[in-house]
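Please, structure for the following, as tokens.
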Amino acid sequence: MHDLAQSVLDPEHLGATIAWLGFALAFVFGVVAHRVNFCTMGAVSDVVNIGDWGRMRMWLLAIAVAVVAANLLHLFGYIDLERSIYPAERFTWLSYLVGGVLFGVGMTLAGGCGSRNLVRLGGGNLKSLVVLAFLGMSAYMTMKGVLAVPRTSLFEPAAMHLEGGQGLPNLLAQRVGMQAAAARWVVMGVVGAALLVFVLKDRDFRRRRELMLGGAIIGLVIAAGWYVTGHIGYLAEDPQTLEETFAGTNTHRPESFSFVGPVGYSLELLLLWTDRSLRVTFGIAIVAGLFAGSLAYALASRNFRWESFASAGDLRDHVLGAVLMGFGGVVALGCTIGQGLTGVSTLALGSFLALGGIVAGSAATMKFLYWRLSLAK
């Protein structure tokens, strides 16, 4: 058993281990998300259209759990959230805001974000297959293709340099002259407590045990993703480069769940399967794991149903939404999961800005679609 553990954690095999652990975590995410209908767009829609805060409170509970769990891992030295892409010193405020709004518009037109479409695909929704294909193409084009031109020339130049990074704990520490660790305890406590008070003060929500459990599990999965890539995947010295790195991630930094860039990388891997330089990374593995978990639950619960487009207009909206999600998600450095859960769990200022843009874009689009529908009647 000891030899097996050593083999799994050997630098040569560590990337594969990280990918398999990511797949397992995403499988759990997929089962839970399908079971409790976890969907950010659905949560916003419930609030905007019918005034029901149930799914929104579940989503906010997931954020609270992710924030507290991830920052405790950081404070006790298991991971270093400052090494991730989110608390960077370069605060690209326009990218976060515009990218977030475009993603919010896109996910509303496409019937859900990337993670939601993976869950729906597992349930037999062929519309989601089209959405994911166009989302992947758009994301990859924005990272490395023609859509990278407006990203790098229009949005990224609008930036501020924040010495010490854009993490709220660091900004607080600099402002009031306190230790970084103490500031992180304060910010984590305030954000976590505020979210938990808002979520749990509602008696009806406290009675919906399934939603509470679902939100808590998803928040813990996000923190577990950080642990897998940031602790288990940490290499003080890469055998090939002799430099410090994190195995099994596309950024070579600590990562957790996000579903825009990884869908693009998954598409690249499928198109260039025989390219030996490509590997199944943590991000690609969670795309597969989320789909597999949702599919397993759909088959086990016997609610797998084929579904397709109702009209050409339906197809048009979904394709347009997918393209906007791919572009906006890359520009904003994440989606409802990548920024709304993973990014926010690092307490990075840009993640809160991107999340606000996503919610605003989604809510505005819902109002527009409702207005358009009323005109057609």
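The first helix runs from residue 2 to 8. The CA atoms of residues 12 and 239 lie 8 Å apart.
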